[in-house]
Each structure stands twice: as structure tokens, then as C-alpha cells.
Amino acid sequence: MFEKILIANRGEIALRVLRACRDMGIRTVAVHSTADAESMHVRLADESVCIGPPSGTESYLNKAAVISAAMVTNSDAIHPGYGFLSENADFAEMVEEHGITFIGPTPEHIRVMGDKVQAKIAAQKAGIPVVPGSDGAVESPEEAIKVGAEIGYPVLIKASAGGGGRGMKVAETADDVVEAFKVASGEAKSAFGNGEVYMEKYLSKPRHIEIQVLADSHGNVVHLGERDCSLQRKHQKVLEESPSPALNSSERERIGQVVCEAMRNIGYRNAGTVEFLYENGEFYFIEMNTRLQVEHPVTEMVTGVDLVREQIRIANGAELDFSQDEVSMSGHAIECRINAEDPVTFTPSPGQVTGYHMPGGLGVRVDSGLFSGAKIPPYYDSMVAKLIVHGRSRNECLMRLRRALSEYVIDGVTTTIPLHEKLINAQDFIDGNYDIRWLEEFVLGDDQKANR
């Protein structure tokens, strides 16, 4: 087993990986920017290395600095967490070239799945159902009009590289296509340095369902059920739950088997998540994330599987020590992403935490690097904590989540805790009756919706 792992990330995910390493008796190295020098993951790591100034580009995204830190500390492996360099194929290659193990998939799989067009082609070849759309990239507005007529309106024009809603535009009719193509391509070029776009049929009220998989280098693949990530704002997930209120056991097993077979066919390795839009009983592939997901704790809570531990074991060459038949889902789990943002305007709220109290009790988990006196810098993503709650049933989970949110105290900055309290008391959410557009309509309110 590895003796020392460098964690190439910050915040709650760095702390999450550190804890898994400690459970396995593995020493840890934290890297940090000057803005994160007093962060909890830095305090708790066995060693720490400053890799640059506050800017993510000059620190956590600095490949050479991260690899240099691993070499000077004699680290055996690098765990990238999520975000930053976690899906950077060039970085994964550089890590391996320096004789260090990258805890994740092969660079080839990262590269293919990181390109939306190539990922869709690979998914189709592997037998995964996809949203009807263009055969690869669309080169011009004229071609976009032709494709739109073939697949039927409305259509979605999307950036081939990147995500998060950037370079994504809806065309309701043929008259909208030219402008939507130009805007989507321009946004994609600006955000990702690649203006290539492709087209898909626009689904009106789909759910966002993702399947968690684990695959070792010996051909063993298992799925750990699904997560429902439909509560989104501007294509960013806000709350996730497992299992999905929308699926039954036969649908879960059907799509799980399809994904496992596809991962076997392409020779995938390590943790991965295959994401789908789900509507009227059908699943449509949208992308694959070749890394640990932000929302992985809900899967851990219902399956009892430590996903980070499994990532580390697989990267070290071990076989999965359980089969698909031994995977069982128990109860229900929900994760709330808590951001340092205004719960109404979503304006970021960096600053110093003046008071902090985490909720506790049976079935309550908090993944966070916060503490009283912690500073939340303005340079990074505003998510500061994840509250994950488990219950024997969805109703018990909701009751426990209401109690946990009421106990959670983060003073000194504004957070989205009130938003979560509001949305989990909405009748549509209680009934499990929501889709990927529900949250934005809920947040807008009736007056603003009328004026859109």
C-alpha cells in the first residue's frame, strides 16, 4: 500500500481524502496557497507545502508546483479530489511520467470523457443510450439549422469542452438557431478556449440521474446505485439524494447493468460517474465525470462503501473486495451543499467565521473544513460545507434534515442554509415531484416568473 499521498486540493474535499488516508494508515501531504495557510486540511496533514499565491491558476492549477511538491516530499501518489486538476489528462500523464501514481482513471479515459462530443460517441459505441442529436460537432449555423430540422425543436446547442452551463443555449424554433449557435460558440471560446459546439434534443422536464461506478484494473466493475441531482441552479447542483424518488428497482438495475457493461467494454479504471437525463422512463447519456463527485457522500451513506478508500486501493492495484451481489442500498440520504452566498441573490459572502456549530446525532454527517475563526477567501468556489443526512426512509431523512439544518450555525458570513430550509419544506420536494428546472422556478417566485 502507498506510504504517503499528496492531496492536490483544498477545503472539505482535501479534508475528506485526508481522513480516508488516516483510516488506512497512510501519511498525507497537503498543498496550499498562501490564502489557505491556516486551513484545517493544512493543520491536520502530516506535511504541508505552499505552492503559490491565492490565485488558483498560480497555485492549485499549477501542475509543475504540485508535482514538485510531491517529489520533494517523496509522495507515492497524488489524489486530485474534484475540480482543479482532477480531470486534466495532461496532469495525470505528467504525474505518471514522474513515477508517481495518479489516483484516478487513465489519462486516455479522462481525455475522451472530457470532450462532450467524443464522450457521446464513446458512450454510443459502449451501448449507453444518448439524447438524440448531432453526429459530432456542428460546424456552422447552416448545419445547425439542418440538424435542428432532423431532431425536432426545441434543441440545445452545447459546448463540446467544459460545462457548468457555459456555452449552452436553447433554440425553440429554426429562427432561433443562428443566434443561439453564435452565442453558444462565442461563450465556449471565451470560457474554454474551444468554440466547438454540438446539438441535442431539448427535453422539457427531465430529472438528472447519475450512476456511481467503481472499476479495478482486473476487469471487475460494480455500480453503487444512483443519485438524483435534479435540484440545480444555473446548471450547478444544490441538493442531491439517493435513491431517486423517480426510479423503481427494475429501472435502477437496468441502467446500472448498462453502465457496468459499458465500463467493462472500454476498460475503465477507478471511480467514475455516468450522468443521464431521465424522462418518461428513458435514460439519455449527457456526460461522464472521471473523478470523485462532490455528492459522493450520499452514496456512501446508503451503501456503506468508502469511495475514497476504494479509489486508493484500486490505484494501488488491488481488486475490488466485493461483488455487485454484495452491494446493498439501505435507507435514504440527502446532501445539502452549503455555500457562503446570499440565499436570495446568491452573491458570494467571503469573510471570517466568527461562530461555528455543527449539527450532530444519528445519521448526520458534515463534510467541512470550517471552524470558528476560519477565513473564507474570495478566490475559490463558495461551497464551504456539505450536510449529509441518512434515515431509514425518505420521510425520516427529511425530518432529520430539517432538525440538522436548524442546528447548523455559521456566523460572520451569509450562507445558503435558509434556502435549503425553504426548499425541503416545499410540497413538490416533499412529494419528490421535481425536475432540473424546478429549483430555478421555485427561487424566482411567482412575480419574477411572470416577468421572464
- What is the CATH topology descriptor of the largest domain? D-amino Acid Aminotransferase, Chain A, domain 1
Distance between the termini: 56 Å
Instruction: Using the CA coordinates, give the radius of gyration.
Output: 22 Å
Helix and strand composition category: alpha+beta
- Percent helix range: 25-40%
CATH class annotation of the largest domain: Alpha Beta
**Strand order within the widest beta sheet:** 13-12-9-10-11-14-19-17
State the major sheet: 8 strands, antiparallel
The structural domain count equals 3
Tally of extended strands?
A: 20
Stretches where pLDDT is under 50 for at least 5 consecutive residues are 446-452
| Residue fraction in strands | 25-35%
CATH architectural type of the largest domain: 2-Layer Sandwich
Enumerate how many helices there are, as a single number.
15
Overall pLDDT confidence? 95
CATH evolutionary superfamily of the largest domain: ATP-grasp fold, B domain
Q: What does the overall shape look like?
A: globular
If you had to describe this structure to a student in words, what would you say it looks like?
- The chain has 15 helices and 20 strands.
- It has 452 residues and is an alpha+beta fold.
- Strands 13-12-9-10-11-14-19-17 form an eight-stranded antiparallel sheet. The protein has a five-stranded parallel sheet with strand order 3-2-1-4-5. The chain has a three-stranded antiparallel sheet with strand order 7-6-8, with helices on one face.
- Helix 7 crosses helix 8 (174-192).
- The chain is globular.
- Residues 446-452 have low confidence and may be disordered.
